[in-house]
């Protein structure tokens, strides 16, 4: 069988290792150059697998028994279409896991907040049941299958890319949670309708006894309940707040989604509150890097949507934030972000492939915030420092993917952290 896409973020490593461990004869195919995949290739170097890097070979697709496709691989790839026409079956790592998972599955998706909501949910549930956290959050659970039992719970963060493939196996999680919904990934899905359709796969194959949990305040998903095969519940993001160590009203909303999910498993509020009080930010998700000369520096590199950048900025007081935005252009509209930031933050520093589009949007908006353009992240951090005073916040919340300058959002966040700590 062929794993399509080893990935510079390691997306194909776990499934390659698991397949080899099952005795499969595995070929890994990736169009990226070997030097760009050196770290990922090293992670499977001990396995008896064939690595075909730097380009795809037709026979690896047409002659395979099965194609296991990395979610990041474009679905319109000609060789995938040709293999399908030849009758070659296709699946994904997530599908392989869900087909074999013996435990009850809780799936979490949404345009923003899905990682934190999934992590909070797992944090709470782990106090009362054996709970496994995985999925798009960067943790593969394939190698944990042998240790799982029907009494366990599995919490999966699911991206739209992963959800696209669920119709292949016709499986949805027993509990499906959608944090919110707005336009995103239009460079991949083409239209917001196609993006919504991908997200809806999280509940499309549920049974009548399963549960879909939706955000009461998100108008975009009001009609989604009509499509649900199972029971529909709603969470209120403005319910009685929890004591949290992470800032922002959006994290209160994430906590409410997690709490509503855990109530389905008879977890009491006191248990949830204790777990949430101990919860710490995930890496690159509005995490505090350092405080120097009274200025706090936050890494929110995981933010890849304009809506997420607005939420992150509004987690802090008006006029105390210097925000760094910009990156890979995936077709987002920056008008609303520009309008919100122009009125709320002290300064906007734009970088990356989208910096000119962001600058144009900011110029068309009104508000006191100033705008500066930077050639790269080091220059952006240096500019940000010049605009701060004691009590201010420097926030990396890019609103864009990282692929124009970095391998992934994690590398971007690590680079920001290095630059900040170097100033100390």
3D structure, described in words:
With 424 residues, the chain is α/β, with parallel strands linked by helices. The protein has three domains: 2-91, 3-Layer(aba) Sandwich (Rossmann fold); 94-277, Mur-like, catalytic domain (UDP-N-acetylmuramoyl-L-alanine:D-glutamate ligase); 287-423, Protein-Tyrosine Phosphatase, Chain A. Helix content is 35%, strand content 18%. It is built from 17 helices and 17 strands. The chain has helices at 13-21, 38-42, 58-62, 78-85, 93-100, 114-125, 160-163, 166-169, 186-189, 192-204, 249-263, 269-277, 306-313, 335-344, 355-364, 377-386, 409-423, and strands spanning 2-4, 27-30, 50-53, 66-69, 89-91, 104-109, 131-135, 153-157, 175-178, 211-215, 231-235, 287-292, 295-299, 321-325, 347-350, 370-373, 393-396. The strands form three sheets. The chain has a six-stranded parallel beta sheet, with helices on both faces. α6 crosses α11 (249-263), α6 (114-125) crosses α12 and α14 (335-344) packs across α15 (355-364). The protein is globular and about 60 Å long. The model has no long low-confidence stretch (mean pLDDT 96).
């Amino acid at each position: 069988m062929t794993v399509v896409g080893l990935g510079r973020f390691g997306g194909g490593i776990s499934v390659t290792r698991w397949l080899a461990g099952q005795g499969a004869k595995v070929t890994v195919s990736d169009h990226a150059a070997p030097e760009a995949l050196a770290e990922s290739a090293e992670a499977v170097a001990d396995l008896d697998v064939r690595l075909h890097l730097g380009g795809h070979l037709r026979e690896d697709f047409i002659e395979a028994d099965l194609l296991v496709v990395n979610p990041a691989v474009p679905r319109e790839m000609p060789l995938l279409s040709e293999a399908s026409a030849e009758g070659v079956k296709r699946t994904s790592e997530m599908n392989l896991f869900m087909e074999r998972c013996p435990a009850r599955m809780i799936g979490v998706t949404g345009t923003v907040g899905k990682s934190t909501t999934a992590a909070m949910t797992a944090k709470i549930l782990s106090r009362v049941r054996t709970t496994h956290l995985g999925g798009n959050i960067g943790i593969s659970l394939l190698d944990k299958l042998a240790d799982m039992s029907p009494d366990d719970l599995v919490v999966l963060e699911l991206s739209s890319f992963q959800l696209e493939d669920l119709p292949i196996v016709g499986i949805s999680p027993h509990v499906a949670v959608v944090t919110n919904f707005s336009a995103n990934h239009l460079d991949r899905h083409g239209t917001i309708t196609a993006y919504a359709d991908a997200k809806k796969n999280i509940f499309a194959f549920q049974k009548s006894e399963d549960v879909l949990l939706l955000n009461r305040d998100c108008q975009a998903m009001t009609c989604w309940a009509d499509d649900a095969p199972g029971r529909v519940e709603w969470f209120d993001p403005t319910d009685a707040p929890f004591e949290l160590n992470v800032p922002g009203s959006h994290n209160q909303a994430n906590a409410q989604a997690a709490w509503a999910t855990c109530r389905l498993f008879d977890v009491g509020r006191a248990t949830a509150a204790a777990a949430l009080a101990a919860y710490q930010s995930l890496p690159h998700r509005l995490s505090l890097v350092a405080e120097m000369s009274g200025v706090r520096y936050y890494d929110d590199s995981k933010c890849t949507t304009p809506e997420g950048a607005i939420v992150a900025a509004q987690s802090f007081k008006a006029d105390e934030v210097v925000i760094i935005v910009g990156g890979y252009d995936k077709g987002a509209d920056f008008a609303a972000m520009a309008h919100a930031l122009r009125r709320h933050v002290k300064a906007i520093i734009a970088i990356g492939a989208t910096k000119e589009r962001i600058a144009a949007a900011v110029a068309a908006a009104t508000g006191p915030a100033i705008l500066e353009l930077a050639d790269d992240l080091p220059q952006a951090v240096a500019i940000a420092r010049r605009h701060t005073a004691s009590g201010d916040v420097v926030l990396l919340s890019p609103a864009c993917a990282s692929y124009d300058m970095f391998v992934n959002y994690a590398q971007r966040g690590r680079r920001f952290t290095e630059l900040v700590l170097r100033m100390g």
